[in-house]
Design a protein that fits this description.
single chain, alpha/beta, TIM Barrel, 40% helix
């Protein structure tokens, strides 16, 4: 059976921004600058997406990168994440299959980044949701680095040998292997990502790191009481390293109320909140999107998003209007900020200048 893949454009109606001519010109100028996604899954999902098509795709097919749409979007750099995967061999195989699609010539992360910053193509750097696949064998981090990964989450929701995850009732903080893992990531010039990490472990990892750290895809818990969002002290801890918080748009994540739709307005409310809390120099975009039906992926793959206390029965939206895929997210974010009255300088920081500063500092 051949699995049909979702289109990388035109799958859903365009989000209506209703810009006037001057605003549209500002958006185009901004998109001609540095535009970076700190976290996306820029692959084409099966369409239709069912348990059967997902099983077939996962077992028989390599992921297909939506490269044409990325180039059209204005994105210079995308940190393309593997799905959470406990099997090291599968991660290494995924990287081997993706690298020819993503990177072209064999370049270091820094070399790809430098080319993209000069406007010479789009750099797509491989990233990891977490390091659960290595267990306590830190040699596995070096394997992942050699495979092309340049950013790594320490821990996924359920925690691992390195520290506590955001889904655990108790977060015991960084373990000794976790402390050594942070040091190794620093030494390898890999980005330390705290997106799925528990609060205590996040603060300890940020304090330990000798390089800026990131939350590549999350939002503010003060706006939405999900463990998947980050409390103010964690957001400040990341900013104190010189790092960046990428605001995500996975369905059901960056809400602001159970009574409102999860859409572009809700996502950008988290951008504004984080900018006000820690400064505009420490906020960016990490939409955490696919080309295809993200909401249906949860059902097809048998995954359950982290429940929100008091809102367990709140249904996921069919999609996040205005932030549905990796290609539309930066344009609509820029348009929203223009309409909101942000300055070009501050919009440029959110779109990519902040992330570029961190990537240029960390990658070698």
């Amino acid at each position: 059976m051949t699995v049909t893949l979702a289109a990388d454009s035109g799958r859903l109606p365009e989000y209506p921004m209703e810009l006037d001519s001057a605003q549209s010109q500002r958006v185009e100028r901004l998109l001609a600058g540095t535009v970076i996604s700190l976290h996306d899954h820029p692959i084409r999902l099966p369409d239709p997406l069912t348990a059967e098509t997902w099983k077939l795709h996962s077992g028989q097919s390599a992921d297909v990168f939506g490269g044409d749409a990325i180039v059209r979007s204005g994105l210079n750099v995308v940190l393309a994440s593997a799905l959470a995967e406990p099997d090291q061999r599968r991660l290494l195989s995924w990287a081997a299959a993706m690298r020819p699609q993503l990177l072209g010539p064999e370049l270091s992360g820094a070399e790809s980044l430098a080319l993209a910053m000069r406007g010479e193509g789009s750099a797509v750097l491989l990233a990891l949701e977490d390091l659960g696949s290595i267990g306590t064998d830190l040699v596995g981090i070096e394997e992942l680095y050699r495979a092309g990964f340049r950013s790594a989450g320490l821990v996924y929701n359920t925690g691992n040998a390195l520290g506590g995850g955001l889904g655990q009732s108790t977060d015991g903080g960084l373990t000794e292997p976790g402390r050594r893992a942070v040091a190794m990531l620093n030494d390898l010039h890999m980005l330390v990502d705290l997106s799925h990490v528990g609060d205590r472990t996040s603060i300890e990892a940020a304090a330990l790191s000798t390089a800026p750290v990131v939350i590549s895809h999350a939002g503010a818990r003060s706006l939405w009481p999900s463990a998947r969002m980050k409390p103010d002290d964690v957001l400040r801890a990341v900013a104190d390293t010189g790092g960046v918080i990428g605001i995500e748009a996975a369905p059901g994540s960056t809400r602001v109320s159970a009574d409102t739709t999860h859409d572009l307005d809700a996502v950008m409310a988290h951008v504004e909140y984080v900018a006000e809390l820690v400064g505009v120099d420490h906020v960016g975009l990490g939409p955490d999107t696919f080309f295809g039906d993200h909401t249906q992926l949860y059902s097809a793959a048998g995954w359950s998003p982290q429940p929100v206390p008091g809102y367990e029965r709140l249904a996921l939206p069919d999609y996040v209007a205005g932030m549905e895929n990796p290609a539309e997210a930066p344009r609509n974010a820029a348009s929203w900020l223009v309409r909101r009255g942000w300055s070009d300088a501050d919009i440029a920081k959110v779109l990519g200048a902040n992330a570029a500063r961190v990537l240029e500092s960390v990658l070698r």
